[in-house]
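Researcher: Please predict.
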Amino acid sequence: MKSLIDKHFKLSEHSTNIKTEVIAGITTFLTMAYIIFVNPSILSEAGMDYGAVFVATCLAAALGCLIMGLWANYPIAQAPGMGLNAFFTYGVVLGMGYSWEAALGAVFFSGLIFLLLSIFRVREWIINSIPLSLRLGIAAGIGLFLGMIAMKNAGIVVANPATYVSVGDLSEPSALYALLGFFVITALSYMRVTGAVMIGILGITVLSMLLGHNEYGGMMSMPPSILPTFMALDLAGAFDIAMLSVVFAFLFVDLFDTSGTLIGVAHKGGLLDKDGKLPRIGRAMMADSSASMAGAVLGTSTTTSYVESTAGIVSGGRTGLTAVVVAIMFLISLFFAPLAGSIPVYATAGALLYVAVLMASSLAHANWDDPTDAAPVLIAALAMPLTFSIAEGIALGFISFVAIKTLSGRFRDLNPAVIVLALLFAAKFLFLD
């Protein structure tokens, strides 16, 4: 007689068992646990309470994984997304001058729109309407944006009034630790060591403590209070017309990231149907959007599906039980706040730089033989780090794509959605900036 767990997750149908799913869940968690340290580090620079963000990160990730596992029954883990957290802090709050409460409001609205698009099945139309070249440029741009932030946080690049940026003092401990962390993470990843990013972060943290450049804050304690960020989102502030591009940026990046991750991870695990489509994709999308809304209420940036879920699938994970195990691991992590607080910025900078490498790799898939495709890719990718804003990069990418295609006599390559968005972004630059 099948157990309740077997029946709910359909373990037998997927040729798996509880032991395999548990191992897969732990493997996935180890590959993405770095977000527990990195996310509070980034969002605290926006003025948010570090401890509260730490708790919100763990809870939002756990909630997202539980919804994905129990309802959608996929071995795909969720947590606050890299790139979007950096855009939240450096683009929206520090760059555009909005409060972090208003930024959380924008995250909530983007999640709400994502949920509505999933319910009414508009998501496929939107995804198919956005040209592949723009999607590649956006993904690469986020990677370059993360790379810029990583090197800035480590002091590897610094401001220069004449050249805007220049190399910093590479003899400083922060720069040396960040570079060493990046080298170690990259080497471990090449050797396919599970948890390479987390090992790199913790390794640099311990080394800096041993050499007297960092203090040990402890290992375990009761979770910090979440009250400083809980229900602190400013929905009215997010209604500012100028925030429209921010909401769009959160929405588009989450939409592309989630859809790409779901299809890619599902393909790796043989979870696609005979037509190459993902069954229950609506539930998976709604799990993602619901987690984003809940995360905004708790006090963290957009929650999204993690490509690191592939590690669990390679380990045999095939059902939502894998995601449930990841959720449990995030809940256990709530009691390791002192350890998270001991992680210095330069220890996470190496991890950010490595994630930048992974995201920038999408440039390899661009059609460089067609300048009408290649130029918008480069514009979108370069604009993000140079304007320090994902939203501006997306806007310039859309505008350049429509303008170049039109002037090249390739108007047939355009569709109404791309034209309308390009016009809206152009109007924002002309009349709202």
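Model: The CA atoms of residues 1 and 7 lie 10 Å apart.
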